[in-house]
Amino acid sequence: MTKRFGQVEALTDLTVSVGEGVTGLVGANGAGKSTLIKILLGLLDPTDGTARVLGHDISSQAQEIRRLVGYMPEHDCLPPDVSASDFVVHMGRMSGLPATAARERAADILRHVGLDEERYRQMGGYSTGMKQRAKLAQALVHDPRLVFLDEPTNGLDPAARVDMLHLVQRIGRDFGIAVLVTSHLLGELERVSDHVIVLDGGHLLRSSATADFLKHTGGLLVEVIGGDAERDQLGEALARAGLTCHPRGQLVAVDPPPQGLAVHDVVRDTAADLGLALVRIQPDQAHLEDVFMSSSTTAGAAAPGGPA
Ligand SMILES: Nc1ncnc2c1ncn2[C@@H]1O[C@H](COP(=O)(O)OP(=O)(O)OP(=O)(O)O)[C@@H](O)[C@H]1O
Ligand SMILES: [Mg+2]
Question: How far apart are CA 154 and CA 139, in angstroms?
Fold first, then answer.
C-alpha cells in the first residue's frame, strides 16, 4: 500500500505480512509506523493498495476488525476526570461486553497491567507510567485476538520500560494474543519480538525473524586477565597474525576472519605465546542497532529479508 498526505508520502509501496506472536515495528520518527497502524484499523484510508486484518478487508470490514483488535494509541487520549476503573469498564461495554462481564474483565486486566489502588483515582492525576498502563488495559479489555501497541514505552523511566516490555511479552506468549508493537528503540524490541519489521521513511527496509537479525557475525570477543595494556598487547599480536581487531571496553573484538583461518586456535596460541591468561572467547553477536545502522547506509539497495 501507499499513503500520501498531500506532498508527504508516509508509506511507499509497502508489502508486508505479520504473523502470530510479537512483531516489532521499528523506525525513526516519521517512518510511518503510526500511519500503518491507523490504516490497519480503518481509521485512515490508504491512497493506494489494500490490506487484510485477521482475514477482514480494511476498507469494507473495519467494524469487524475493531471488534477483534485492541489499540493502544501513541498519544495521551485518556479523559482526565474519569478513573481507570470506570474508563476500562466503559471501553469494555463499548466493545459489546455485558455490564457484569465488563466489570470483571476490567478488574482482571487492570490487575494484570499493575494498576492497583490508583485505578479508582481520576486519570488526570496519573504519572506517565500509570497512563501507559491504563491505555494498555483498555486495549485488552474485550479479549482481542490482536493488539496494536503504538510506542507503549514512550515517556517511561528505565525500570518502567522493562516492566512494560515484560507485559508486552506476556500478552504475546502467555495470553496468546498477536502483538504488533512499535518503537524507535531497536534494542528494546529485540528482546521481546519474535519478528521485526523495519520501516525507513515509509519504505520497508527489512522484515525477518528476530533470530535472523541476530545471527552471529562470525566475529569473536576475547578477554584476557589484565588491563588496557594486556588488551592492546593481544590486539596488536592478533593483527600481526592476520586478524582485524578493535578494542571494545575491556575486550578485544575480532572481525570475522578470512576464509580458512582457524580463529579460535590463533587467539589461543597468540595469548599463550604472550603469556596472557584467557578469560573467555565468545561469539560477537550482532544487535538490531548494528544491523539497522549498516542497512540504513544502503537503504535503497537492502532487500527485505536479505542477509545483514
Ligand atoms: N494527518 C497527517 N497529515 C499530514 N501528514 C501526516 C499525518 N500523519 C502523518 N503524517 C506524516 O506522515 C509521516 C509518517 O508519520 P507517522 O506518524 O506515521 O510516523 P511514525 O513512524 O509513527 O513516527 P513517530 O515515531 O514520530 O511516532 C510523517 O512525515 C508525518 O509528518
Ligand atoms: Mg508514531
Answer: 16
Indicate the SS3 state at residue 138.
helix
CB of residue 231 inside a 6 A radius of ligand 1? no
150 and 271 inside one domain: no
Q: Do 232 and 208 sit in the same domain of this protein?
A: no
What DSSP element (H or E) covers 274?
helix 263-274
Q: Which helix (H) or strand (E) holds 3?
A: strand 3-5
**Ligand 1 within 6 A of CB of 30:** yes
Residue with CA nearest ligand 1 atom 30: 30
257: which 3 cell numbers?
576472519
Is 120's C-beta closer than 6 angstroms to any atom of ligand 1? no
**Are 137 and 44 within one domain?**
yes
pLDDT tens track of the chain, all 308 residues?
A: 999 999 999 999 999 999 999 999 999 889 999 999 999 999 999 999 999 999 999 999 988 998 899 999 999 889 999 999 999 999 999 988 999 999 999 999 999 999 989 999 999 999 999 999 999 999 999 999 999 999 999 999 989 999 999 999 999 988 899 999 999 887 788 889 999 999 999 999 889 898 777 665 678 899 999 999 999 999 999 999 999 999 998 999 998 887 778 889 999 999 999 999 999 998 887 666 666 665 544 433 333 333 33
In this structure, the answer to whether residues 166 and 27 fall within a common structural domain is: yes
- Compute the distance between CA of residue 62 and CA of residue 42 in angstroms, rounded to an integer: 5
Structural domain total, the chain:
2
- CATH number of the structural domain spanning residue 233: 3.30.70.100
The verdict on 80 and 167 lying in the same domain is yes
Residues 42 and 165 in one domain: yes
